[in-house]
Amino acid sequence: MPKKDNKETGLQITEIMKVGPKVPKISGKDWEFLVYELKKLKVTPGEAYRIVSEKIGGTNVRFEWKMLRLTMFIWARVKENEGMYLKPKIDTVRGIVSERKYKQFFYGYYPDLDFDHEKEVRLLNKLIADKGVRPYFKEGYYFYEGTKKPIPQKILDRILWDK
């Protein structure tokens, strides 16, 4: 079952898509010892920020990243649907992963990891096909790009499940 209220989650993801990925800014000399210790442990600043924000900040980076990828996929399928031709899902996935926006969000959430295009295509395709993700393909989680109008369930069913 979904973790949060559909509309609330959809609005949060839409807001993140507007603002962009969160990039940590750490400054000040009070942090010298912490930086020294993190370097000894070979922890990158991005990795340290991600761990601390998950533990203290109450953010769930994995959930947000999953929902952002699903939102990008839904938006691409809606555009294809408006053009009256739905490409095969794998072609849509390749197009999404090739976009600059996808890479920016990837580095925003995982600055310590290297971007591998083929791996990301495989992971996004696997995510979309996963039965555990189906509860998130409901009306209220996704809004039309640039609006706060929810995408109806009828359209979601068409762009996701019709052959």
Write structural notes for this entry.
There is one protein chain. The protein is mainly α. It has one domain. The protein has eight helices and no strands. Helix 4 crosses helix 5, helix 4 crosses helix 8 and helix 5 packs across helix 7. The model has no long low-confidence stretch (mean pLDDT 85).
Keyphrases for this structure?
163 residues, mainly alpha, 8 helices
Write the layout of secondary structure elements.
Layout: H1 6-19, H2 32-40, H3 45-55, H4 61-82, H5 89-98, H6 100-109, H7 117-129, H8 153-161
In short, what is this structure?
The protein is mostly helical and 163 residues long. Helices cover 60% and strands 0% of the residues.
Question: Oligomeric state of the chains?
Answer: single chain
List the secondary-structure elements in sequence, H or E.
HHHHHHHH
The coarse overall form would be elongated
Distance between the termini: 26 Å
Radius of gyration: 18 Å
Mean pLDDT: 85
Structural class: mainly alpha
Number of helices: 8
Strand content: under 5%
Helix content: 55-70%
Query: Could you give a short account of the major beta sheet?
Result: none
Count all strands and give the number: 0
**Spans of at least 5 consecutive residues with low confidence:** none
